[in-house]
């Protein structure tokens, strides 16, 4: 017979042990009310990661993990094998071995609601290194792409059966993304809520705008992205966007601004023959019920010559013994076709834009003459820090750059293609095709944005132009990279 005191003690420690919640491997637990500040971590054969994310503002709990069976109540007082999980903007993780299981302790919890994840394959809560990407905006719409969630590798064709994708091939079948469960959070930058930028906190917010359509899309050979078509936005407003994958992986932020209320070019996107195009073009509004143009509504007068031109180019290219003979140590016929398609799409679909509402003077107002050398990235104009986008006003009387586009009957402003889209074709294609780009130092800047990505001088050093890219994550778009 045991003394009563010991019995009581035993009894209370059994209750105590029972009330500890057990974390499950490869699972996220949501803790809305904390009854008991310790969680049991099961034994895991390989390295495991414990991750935490705060779901609301207003509290600053601390998390301690122990992977030893002798520290059963880890906390700020330390102890053998007790490690604090450092939080960065509301989330953090710790990776180590749990051969005998372990315990997670929470201190200073207050009213906090939070998530705890346990995984044997990397962290479940994550701030992703690559941000989402803006397609473009109108006054009240936007196209936004997630980070690349899946790589795409095209099988390189080989001799003697060297076949290239047909000009009008359907879009490749997207991977199954139901498990990735993408969500988008969008807010005017000026009223961005003061919450931890974690998956559970962002998911609980009401996002601005409405999602008109969302699909996975292979915009370019970087890989698959999730694509959102948003409507119901406010003109001339700076927005901040985050993307949450699987509820716990956060990508972002990016910022972008909507165009002014008078901006009237509609968006075109989701074209299998021009997968990179996702921006406004100088066309009348799309047919009733559609909020943007896609492959089913884009006029044949525009798509047919483009597809035929690409088919003719591909036929000429294939007169070369592709895959048997080599015209370059770096590029193949498949590279040439891909770069040519991108260039052809970029010049065939003129891009409407306007100066950034926050910086309305940031473009060249005087249209360049065909022999002009000056328009382009010129950081010295208007101060050393200021870079002008390659915007060129199109008067009502202007002949459309692509003659298959109807005349708009009003003024608009064109964002010129980046010269690099042309030089990429020049580099990737065999000489016999006779493809030529305008010279950087001579007339290129009348028709292209020059000096943004590569330098504008004779050498055109790659990636060392004034911006190094066609657009940035703060909402600037310098030239049209397709
Ligand atoms: C606990 O984790 C630490 C740090 O990763 C490690 O050095 C130690 O061996 C682990 N303890 C056990 C029992 O695995
Ligand atoms: C582990 O994670 C990687 C990357 O997230 C994923 O590709 C892989 O399929 C995962 N492995 C398992 C066994 O879940
Ligand atoms: C895609 O491939 C690149 C390079 O091979 C790699 O760095 C990247 O992590 C991959 N991305 C995904 C989502 O698998
Ligand atoms: C050539 O390759 C294409 C695509 O890879 C394939 O569909 C076709 O059947 C192949 N033709 C021959 C004769 O092998
Ligand atoms: C996807 O996320 C939403 C919102 O977070 C959630 O309600 C839904 O259950 C999730 N769906 C799946 C299949 O995980
Ligand atoms: C492609 O070639 C055909 C036949 O030579 C020609 O009729 C057509 O106009 C060409 N297409 C373009 C866009 O040049
Ligand atoms: C949006 O706001 C952010 C923060 O104020 C700023 O850095 C960014 O340049 C703005 N973007 C645009 C397109 O105005």
Strand order of the largest sheet: 1-3-8-5-6
The helix content, as a percent range, equals 10-25%
Number of domains: 3
SSE string, helices as H and strands as E: HEEEEEEEEEEEEEHEEEEEEHHEEEH
Keywords: Signal
InterPro entries: MID1/Yam8
Signal peptide: 1-17
GO molecular function: calcium channel activity
Question: Could you outline the blueprint of secondary structure elements for this entry?
Answer:
Elements: H1 4-19, E1 21-22, E2 27-31, E3 38-41, E4 47-54, E5 62-66, E6 82-85, E7 91-97, E8 102-107, E9 114-119, E10 126-127, E11 133-137, E12 142-145, E13 183-188, H2 199-203, E14 210-220, E15 223-231, E16 238-245, E17 249-257, E18 267-268, E19 279-280, H3 300-317, H4 333-348, E20 351-352, E21 391-394, E22 412-415, H5 419-428
Parallel strand pairs: 1-3, 10-17
Antiparallel strand pairs: 2-9, 3-8, 4-7, 4-9, 5-6, 5-8, 11-12, 12-15, 13-16, 14-15, 16-17, 18-19, 20-22, 21-22
Helix pairs in contact: 3-4, 4-5
The structure holds 2-acetamido-2-deoxy-beta-D-glucopyranose (7 copies).
What does this structure look like?
A hairpin with a 2-residue loop joins strand 14 and strand 15 (223-231). The N and C termini lie far apart (83 Å). The longest helix is centred in the middle third of the chain and has 18 residues, at 300-317. The chain has 3 domains: 15-124, Jelly Rolls, CATH 2.60.120; 126-271, Sandwich (Immunoglobulin-like), CATH 2.60.40.10; 299-482, no CATH class. It has helices spanning 4-19, 199-203, 300-317, 333-348, 419-428, and strands spanning 21-22, 27-31, 38-41, 47-54, 62-66, 82-85, 91-97, 102-107, 114-119, 126-127, 133-137, 142-145, 183-188, 210-220, 223-231, 238-245, 249-257, 267-268, 279-280, 351-352, 391-394, 412-415. The chain contains 5 helices and 22 strands. It has 482 residues and is α+β, with helices and mostly antiparallel strands. It has a 5-stranded mixed sheet with strand order 1-3-8-5-6, with no helix packed on it. The site of one 2-acetamido-2-deoxy-beta-D-glucopyranose has 4 residues, from helix 3.
């Amino acid at each position: 017979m045991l003394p009563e005191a010991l019995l009581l003690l035993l009894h209370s420690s059994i209750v105590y042990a029972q009330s500890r919640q057990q974390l499950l491997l490869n699972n996220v637990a949501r803790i809305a009310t904390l009854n008991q500040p310790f969680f049991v971590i099961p034994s895991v054969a390989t390295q495991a990661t414990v991750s935490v994310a705060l779901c609301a503002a207003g509290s600053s709990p601390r998390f301690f993990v122990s992977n030893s069976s002798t520290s059963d109540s880890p906390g700020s007082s330390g102890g053998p094998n007790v490690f604090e999980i450092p939080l960065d903007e509301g989330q953090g993780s710790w990776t180590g071995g749990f051969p005998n299981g372990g315990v997670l302790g929470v201190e200073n919890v207050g009213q906090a609601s939070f998530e705890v994840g346990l995984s044997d394959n990397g962290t479940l809560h994550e701030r992703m290194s690559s941000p989402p990407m803006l397609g473009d905006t109108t006054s009240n719409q936007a196209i936004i792409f997630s980070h690349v969630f899946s790589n795409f590798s095209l099988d390189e064709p080989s001799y003697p059966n060297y076949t290239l994708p047909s000009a009008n091939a359907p879009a490749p079948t997207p991977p199954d993304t139901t498990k990735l469960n993408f969500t988008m959070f969008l807010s005017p930058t000026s009223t961005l809520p003061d919450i931890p930028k974690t998956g559970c906190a962002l998911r609980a917010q009401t996002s601005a705008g409405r999602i008109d359509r969302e699909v996975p899309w292979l915009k370019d050979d970087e890989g698959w992205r999730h694509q959102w078509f948003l409507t119901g936005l406010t003109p001339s407003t700076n927005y901040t966007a985050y993307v949450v994958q699987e509820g716990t992986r956060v990508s972002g932020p990016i910022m972008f601004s909507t165009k002014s209320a008078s901006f009237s070019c509609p968006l075109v996107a989701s074209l299998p023959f021009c997968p990179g195009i996702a921006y406004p073009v100088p066309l009348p509004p799309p047919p009733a019920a559609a909020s943007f143009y896609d492959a089913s509504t884009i006029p044949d007068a525009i798509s047919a010559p483009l597809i035929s031109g690409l088919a003719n180019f591909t036929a000429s290219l294939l007169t070369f013994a592709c895959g048997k003979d080599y015209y370059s140590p770096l590029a193949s016929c498949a590279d040439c076709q891909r770069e040519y398609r991108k260039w052809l799409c970029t010049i065939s679909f003129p891009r409407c834009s306007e100066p950034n509402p926050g910086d309305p003077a940031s473009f060249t107002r005087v249209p360049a003459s065909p022999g002009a050398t000056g328009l382009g990235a010129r950081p010295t104009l208007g101060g050393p820090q200021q870079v002008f986008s390659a915007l060129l006003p199109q008067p009502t009387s202007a002949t459309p750059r692509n003659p298959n586009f109807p005349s708009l009957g009003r003024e608009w402003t064109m964002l010129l293609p980046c010269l690099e889209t042309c030089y990429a074709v020049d580099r990737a294609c065999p000489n016999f095709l006779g493809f030529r780009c305008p010279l950087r130092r001579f007339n290129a800047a009348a028709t292209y944005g020059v000096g943004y990505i590569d330098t504008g001088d004779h050498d055109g050093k790659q990636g060392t132009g004034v911006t190094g890219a066609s657009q940035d994550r703060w909402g600037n778009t310098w030239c049209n990279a397709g």
